Structure prediction request, 558 residues.
Amino acid sequence: MKKFWTFQARSDGIGELYLYGEIADASWLGDEITPAQFARELDALGEFVKTYHVKGLAWAVVNEDGTLRSSFAKAMQGDSMQRLLETLSAKPGDAVFVIADKKYVALTAMGQLRLRLGKQLNLIDSKRYDLLWVTEFPLLEWSDEENRFLAMHHPFTNVMEEDIPLMDTDPGAVRAKAYDLVMNGVEMGSGSIRIHQSDVQEKMFKLLGFTKEQAWEQARKLERLSNAGIDVHGDSMTCGQLMERWFAEHCVNHVAATTLSKYSDGIDRISKHPVYTLQIKRVNAQTQKRLIDDLRNGTLTGRPISMRTAMSLMEPLRLSMSWGVRHGYIPVNPLSSAQLPKTPKRKQRILNQRDIDDLCMSTEGHPFRIPLMLALYGGLRREEAAGLQWENVDFDRNTITIIDATTRTASGRTIHKDTKNTFSRRTISMPQFVMDELKSIPKTSPFVCVSRTGAPYAPDSYPQALKRLIHGINKQRNGTAIPPMPEATYHDLRHTHAAMLIKLGTQPKIIQERLGHASIKITMDTYGYLMTGLQEAVADALDTQHRVGTGGHKSGHT
Prediction:
C-alpha cells in the first residue's frame, strides 16, 4: 500500500514527519483505514449506484474540525455548499451523498444505497419483521419521452373520491385506489380497485391522451383483454420502456446485486439497437434473431462474443416480456414462440497430478498463487476467492469461512455481493500447507487475494492469469515427452478439487458441503460420472473385509 506519510532526517539530528492527508480518529465501515482506503470505499459506493442507471454519486464529508472534503464543492457557487449542509443538518463526522437524475431513478438508487450502508454498518436488525401498507399511490406519471401522462398501475384504476376534481386542475396530484403490502422494504403483494363510474373513466382516458372516440374504442379493447385476465398499459409501449419498467419495478427489489448489474449491462447494450425503440406489437421471432446476430458480431459490444454471452445479454428483453404479460403491461409475449439457439454445454476438464504440480510450481511468488490454491484445495468459486477477507480466516482451526463474494461486470463495475446461495455460506477445513501459504502473505488489505499493488485481485482477471500460466508451462514442455497441458478455466480447478475428493473416497455429502451446492442432487448430477469406478472399489473392500473376518475360509449356507 502506498504510504501517505514520509519521514525525513535532517543534518541537525531532528527528523520531520510529512503527512499527505488526515489521520483517521474514527472508523469507516467498521475498520480503521487510511485516507486512500476511505477514498476507495467512496468510489465503490459510486460504482454501486451506477448499477441502478445513475451517472454517479457525489459526496461530501464534514471533518471533525468543521472543514469539508467533497467531490463537488468546486462546482458549487457562493455559499450554496454551506446552505446545502445546513439544510441537511450535516454535523462534523457526517457524510452527505447526492444523486441527480430522473426522480424515480434517483430515488431508487438512493434507496438501495441506504440499504447497502445500513447492512455494512450493521444498522439493520435482521430479527425484526415490519409490515407496511402503502395506500396512496399517484394515479399517473408523466412521460417526457411521450409528452403525456401514463397510468401508474393501469387505465382502469379508480381514484380517491376527494381527488376527482384534481383530474381537471392538477392530474399529477391525483391519488389512486391502489395498495401494496410491504415487509422489511420488499413488496409482498399489490392490487387496486377498478373505476365503476363512466364519467371518471372518460376523464381518465382523456388524461392519457385519447379523444372520446379513441377512449371508448380503447376501453372496449382493454375490456376484452381484461375479461380474459389481461390488463394493458398502452398499445405504443416500446421494448425499451418495458425493460426499464421491469428493471425499476421488479429487479431492484427482487434481484441480487450481481444479477442486477448483469441485467443493467444487458439493457445498456440493447439500448444501442433499433429493437430498444421498437413498439412491442411489432416484435417477432426475427427481431430476436437480428438482435442475437448483432450482439454476436460485435456491433453492440465492440468485439465478437460467444453465443452464451449473447444470450446472457439479451435476458432483459426476454424476461421483461414474460413479466409484462403477468403484470398486464402487454397482452401477449411476442417472443414466447421464438426458438432460442442452443448453447452447447462446456465439458468439464479435470487436471492430472502432473498439471497440478506444475501449476503450483509456476506460481511461486505470483499473486495468483493464493486464488489457485483456494480453488484446487478448497473448491472456491472465483467470486468467493475474490471476496475472501482476513477476518474470515481462522489460523487456530485451519478453516476459512465463505460469507461474501466479489465480481465485476462487463462495464468494469466492481460488485461486492452475497454468496451464490445460502448453502454457499460455509466453513471449510483447509490443508496445513495452504494455511502456511496464507500466513506468509503481507496483510496489506482486508482482502486475502490481492495483486502486486495491494489492490483486491479482480475476479475477471483470473481467466487471463490462468491462461498465461498454462501457456508458460506448455512452453517449457515443448519438445519434451510430456503432453501439453489442456486449456482450463478457474472453474475447472474447482472441478479438479471435487475429483480429488472423490478419488480419496470422500462421502458425497461432505463434497456437497465443501463446494457449497444447494442439494446433494446437484453434486451427484455434476460429478456422479466420476464415482462409477468407486463401485468396484467398494466391492473389493467388502470382499477384503469378509476374507479377513472369516480367516480366509469360504462360507455358505447349509
In short: Residues 348 and 492 are 6 Å apart (CA to CA). The chain has 20 helices and 15 strands. The longest strand covers residues 186-192. Confidence is low (pLDDT under 50) at residues 23-31, 228-235, 409-413.
